[in-house]
Amino acid sequence: MVNEQEFLAGYDPRAYPAVAVTVDVVALTIRDNELQVLLIQRAAPPFAGFWALPGGFVRPEEDLAAAARREFAEETGLGGEPLRRVHFEQLASYGTPDRDPRMRIFSIAYLAFAPDLPEPTAGSDAGAAEWLALTALPTRELAFDHRRIIEDGLERARSKLEYTPLATRFVGDEFTIADLRAVYETVWGHPLHAGNFHRKVLSVPGLVEGTGATTEHGGPRGGPRARLYRAGDARLLHPALLRPAREENVR
Amino acid sequence: MVNEQEFLAGYDPRAYPAVAVTVDVVALTIRDNELQVLLIQRAAPPFAGFWALPGGFVRPEEDLAAAARREFAEETGLGGEPLRRVHFEQLASYGTPDRDPRMRIFSIAYLAFAPDLPEPTAGSDAGAAEWLALTALPTRELAFDHRRIIEDGLERARSKLEYTPLATRFVGDEFTIADLRAVYETVWGHPLHAGNFHRKVLSVPGLVEGTGATTEHGGPRGGPRARLYRAGDARLLHPALLRPAREENVR
DNA sequence: CTAAGAATAACTCAGGCTGAGAATAACCCC
DNA sequence: GGGGTTATTCTCAGCCTGAGTTATTCTTAG
After folding, report:
1. Comparing C-alpha atoms, which of A44, A142, A49 is closest to residue A102?
2. I need a labelling partner for A5 at 20 to 30 A (CA). Which of A98, A125, A248, B224 fits?
């Protein structure tokens, strides 16, 4: 133990192999009624040709969250007000020694949520970029530990829908209850009871507030015009909008 | 934008000022019916004399979680089976450029929970070490952004008690329902209805399982012998054991 | 123009869970 | 033995949920 302490006292990171810190962004959106994640195709080794999360080195003097927004903006071409509306939150950090073959790289992952975004600007520094439906993810070759990071991000997103008004970030400024329900169904991956969902959404204080207006037309396949709502001022949903229990996840 | 891309293409972190990655551990335990956090007193600048979370540089070839366990073990003197029983989980990462005056240091914080631990081994490399009651924290001078990290850890702990059997990590192998209730009351900071808590704990599948035994004696101030329980096999509590709503936190 | 189909929104109802209070019984200390 | 304390169990009203139904409005096919 004394050796241990002597070692520590003299421990200077500058005397050791350099390390680097990157941010990776799990950007989720809903397009074509599917949950999709933003991926870029790597042009250079390692993992050339593989798909990866947008991300890159944190610059000197740059905050972590700022780095995440920058990387996201570079791939999507988003800026200004539309970018400010995108929700960002820190997800987790990944630092297994061999996760990148080049050197020791720690990655701090961020989660981003946005409503239906345009096709990414393919001409960025990373070659191809695209939104990929999560259903198509299993057959895609992913670089590094990015599959794991996406899975962690997904679980976070599903969980956050329960306790926060995050779902309102996936829809436009004004939306119908059915729009919101579609978000929950898409992210959670199974259908919800329309009547109960409606009752619940209206009963949670601060989740939505009515605009007084309705849609211009009924749904594409019929039905009355739906009332329009805006996101409310709640930061936490109480009581929460819980996913039906999945027995297999409990034990 | 082209300049941006050219910059990125040539971006090599090795050409930039070195960065370092540390882990910091928010270790929580319950002693004397109070929630306490492990702090060490810094011997050297910066922040010499200030109190800080135990932590240090992640070594080459060392995993993040392993680094957190190592730093925790060094300060507490714990090892072997007792150390394995301590619950660790990643909390969040902190990387504001000026959070450490020496250089750019990213810190990945871990949360540790353990039942009533002994006084830390004061003779470690960091000078004094002690468990500090959270109630005494506001008057203590803390180094770096460690106050913020502790706050984040606390909120995580409070929240995790709701959805996971984490509370069983704060008590011994065998415990009474009252022991468990004391954990919840201590961490959440307010009293709970004994009867309802009892009913709830026994009704959540997999939270606890009876041992058939009871305590040797009644409580110090009277009352019957209490039944003893062990932690069950649940990984998630369903339905959850929710904190009473705090209106002020919702909006 | 009309009928069929679809969706919104509101209502009903049984069952489960919660908070609050109370009852019962076992046990400590004096 | 008596008073105070605590574990455990009950009771009961109120709220919330899942499931199903109904009235109404609207689109589309024919």
Report:
1. A44
2. A98
Residue B218 has pLDDT above 70, yes or no: yes
Instruction: List pLDDT tens digits, range A162-177.
Output: 999 999 999 999 999 9
pLDDT digits (tens, 9 = 90+) for B121-130: 655 555 789 9
Q: Find which of A12, A19, A159, A162 to mutate to test the B interface (most B CBs within 10 Å of its CB).
A: A19
The span from the CA of A114 to the CA of A77, in Å, is: 14
| Conformational region of residue A217, where left means phi above 0, alpha means psi within -120 to 50, and beta covers everything else | beta
| Statement to judge: residues A137 and A174 lie in one domain | no
In a domain, B4, yes or no: no
- CATH number, residue B121: 3.90.79.10
Judged by a CB distance cut-off of 8 A, whether residue A54 touches chain B is no
The nearest alpha carbon in chain A to B3 belongs to: A125
Distance CA B127, CA B192 (A): 39
CB A53 within 8 Å of CB A146: yes
User: Closest Cα partner for A57 from B23, B92, B15?
Assistant: B15
**In percent, how much of chain B has pLDDT > 70?**
88
Last residue of a domain, one of A119, A146, A173: A146
**Is residue B138 one of the residues assigned to a domain?**
yes
Residue nearest to nucleotide C5 (CA to C1'): A222
Enclosing domain of residue A61 = 10-146
∠A135-A137-A143 over CA atoms, to 5°? Answer: 170
